[in-house]
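User: Just a sanity check before I run the rest of the batch. Below are the structure tokens for the first item. I only need the designed sequence back.
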């Protein structure tokens, strides 16, 4: 009853354990060695791919390159990562600490996505 007087709070989501927001809607794939894998989601902390989880072992370190299709270009973001989780056809990699250049490339991807979303919202 007191909450009615003070203004009821909307249902709050429990705080996330994640340090970085996952992104699922970007057009991207990842290259590991000579193999291309679909990206399930990615964040500034890592990437989750779809593949046979037997291909990689927990703790494996490898170079990964995320390739994003932007409106006018394709951008590649190469980085070092470690396998942190495997389950049912999915493998999750944690990125090594990001350099300034890598952060800037990821920001270009986010900016392009936001611009594309805005343009699409204006053409309806």
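Assistant: Here's the designed sequence for the first item:
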């Amino acid at each position: 009853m007191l909450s009615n007087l003070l203004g009821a709070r909307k249902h709050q989501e429990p705080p996330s354990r994640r340090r970085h927001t996952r992104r699922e809607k970007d057009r991207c794939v990842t290259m590991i060695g000579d193999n291309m894998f679909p990206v399930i989601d990615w964040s500034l902390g890592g990437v989750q791919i779809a593949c046979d989880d037997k291909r990689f072992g927990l703790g494996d370190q490898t170079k990964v390159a995320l390739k994003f299709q932007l409106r006018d270009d394709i951008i590649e973001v190469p980085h070092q990562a470690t396998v942190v989780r495997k389950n049912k056809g999915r493998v999750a990699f944690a990125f090594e600490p990001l350099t300034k250049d890598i952060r800037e490339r990821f920001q270009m991807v986010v900016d392009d996505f936001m611009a594309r979303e805005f343009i699409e919202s204006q053409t309806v």
